[in-house]
Specification:
Low-confidence stretches: 305-311, 322-327
CATH architecture of the largest domain: 2-Layer Sandwich
Helix content: 25-40%
Largest sheet: 7 strands, mixed
CATH topology of the largest domain: Chloramphenicol Acetyltransferase
Strand content: 15-25%
Distance between the termini: 49 Å
Number of strands: 15
Mean pLDDT: 85
Shape: globular
Structural class: alpha+beta
């Protein structure tokens, strides 16, 4: 008698249910959160990353967060629900591939995508969804290396359901339950705390804080324009097509750089020379200053040639800017940061929330100030802007942010359309405190973990480094001509180690 897949058996135990996606989930709702995890079989275990255990523990996760097996439904523009229908589940796509190379090959290639088989990433950057072809909420690809030497695990989850922190909660919960099954042979008396979710939960958290003064957060939600209003009237499928037209043919490159903790400490000392004694200088402030100053010096006026090929997105932006009467020439450098609101809500229950709980903030600095010769003062200007940006995200900001999203379906796109003028704009998302290397399924932590590289530009991800090294990894996704300048910039080369 053939074995019934645990995923198939899940249908007989889950209850049908429908949940509305909270406004915060729509901020980055177009995208997937996708990572590769590289696991080496250092022990020679025959049951390394067992398919059976991975499937059974994944079902354990689905019982705690059933929306991962749901179907996205667009009720009206900008409003979504996820329906879990036990008779028509949208189960995670779980693919398994046997590779012709061993793990040593992957390591020798520094975990580059070129070392992996074609189609390694079984989901792209966007959550493409139509009524006839509903999007999978979860896509998983287990790639087994030759001679049982290791596993490369690709996992993509719709950003509507998770942010970076929640993605990691799902992954660590999956790993924790798999490890428990491997050690105990069953899932009885599950360890740890289960995943919690629900739009009503997040609403409850936000309602407990007072709104900011004014009806809208001025430095985040700039006034709507014709472009964002037209965009907001489109269905999700049409919006994704437009996004693809804007950035689809961009010559995008991804590079990884290591920043040692000693380097961060040395930069912090320089910054403290030029800021008030009582101003904190966090790793985030230091890294944001390092990245933004370097990026500014890669732009015209900072030593870069002004006749470099601008790429499709900039050409489109220039045309659109002229059409709507905006100046395409940037006078400011715009840094858009991503803030996790869980600790800011100061509610114990919010820490366990498994859904999207991030807000964007915008910090602007005169471009000329960042393009000045790099001194303690230059770094301090960038670090202070980063500090003010993160500190602006208080509980009142969060309340007003959620209200703005609920009131205007185009609000989530305004920062991307109006907050900055390419190329002097960069989105930075800092995962330094997210424990990616705690995803241990029972056979050890990953040798490397990183986000999918085919995302969009300009974007900077910051990750914790592997525990064997003190520091962090900076992942820059940029147009090729900007990336080439960055790699040759003396200030950048002096402070980072090129990985690949």
């Amino acid at each position: 008698m053939s074995r019934v897949s645990p995923l198939t058996a899940f249908a007989s135990t889950v209850a049908s249910q429908t949940h509305e996606i909270h406004e915060l989930g729509r901020v980055s709702g177009f995208f997937t959160v996708s990572h590769f995890f590289f696991y080496e079989n250092t022990s020679g275990a025959q049951d390394f990353m067992s398919t059976r255990l991975l499937e059974e523990s994944l079902v354990d996760v689905l019982h705690e967060y059933p929306l991962l097996a749901g179907t996205l439904q667009e009720r009206r523009r900008g409003r979504f629900t996820v329906a879990v229908d036990r008779d028509n589940l949208n189960l995670p796509e779980l693919k398994e591939t046997q590779c012709e190379f061993d793990f040593g090959h992957v390591r020798a290639m520094r975990f580059a995508p070129s070392a992996l088989p074609e189609g390694a990433a079984t989901a792209g950057r966007y959550t493409f969804h139509t009524r006839k072809r509903p999007a999978k909420m979860v896509n998983i690809h287990v790639m087994r290396c030759k001679d049982n030497s290791g596993v490369v695990l690709f996992v993509a989850i719709a950003h509507l359901l998770v942010d970076g922190t929640a993605y990691n909660k799902v992954m660590r919960r999956w790993a924790e339950l798999c490890k428990h099954r491997a050690a105990n042979g069953a899932a009885d008396a599950k360890p740890g705390r289960p995943l919690v979710f629900g739009s009503d939960l997040m609403d409850g958290f936000i309602r407990q804080v007072a709104p900011a003064s004014g009806a809208i957060v001025s430095h985040q939600f700039v006034p709507a324009g014709l472009l964002s209003r037209l965009f907001g009237l489109c269905s999700m499928a049409t919006q994704l097509k437009l996004l693809g037209m804007l950035g689809g043919d961009m010559d995008l490159t991804s590079n990884f750089y290591f920043v040692a903790q000693d380097t961060m400490d040395a930069l912090r000392s320089q910054i403290r020379e030029a800021v008030p004694a009582n101003q904190p200088v966090s790793n985030n402030d230091v890294l944001t200053a390092l990245v933004n100053v370097a990026m500014a010096h890669c732009l015209p006026g900072g030593g870069a040639a002004s006749d470099a090929p601008p790429g499709a997105l900039r050409r489109v932006w220039t045309a659109v800017a002229r059409l709507f009467g905006m100046s395409p020439a940037p006078a400011e450098f715009t840094h858009m940061g991503v803030a996790n609101i869980r600790p800011r809500l100061k509610l114990a229950a919010a820490a366990d929330y498994c859904g999207s709980a991030v807000v964007l903030y915008v910090a602007k600095v005169p471009l000329a100030a960042l393009q000045a010769p790099v001194t303690s003062k230059t770094l301090a200007v960038a670090a202070t802007a980063a500090r003010r940006g993160t500190e602006s995200v208080d509980r009142g900001y969060i309340h007003a942010y959620a209200e703005a999203l609920a009131a205007a379906p185009d609000a989530n796109m305004r920062p991307f359309l109006y907050a900055g003028k390419p190329p002097a704009v960069l989105v930075i998302t800092n995962h330094e405190r997210i424990p990616h290397y705690e995803c241990d399924f029972g056979w050890g932590i990953p040798a490397w973990a990183n986000v999918i590289e085919d995302t969009y530009a300009p974007l900077c991800y910051i990750y914790p480094a592997h525990p064997s090294r003190a520091g962090c990894v900076v992942h820059m996704m940029l147009p090729r001509h900007v990336q080439d300048r960055l790699r040759q910039l003396p200030f950048w080369k002096d402070n980072v180690e090129f990985i690949r």
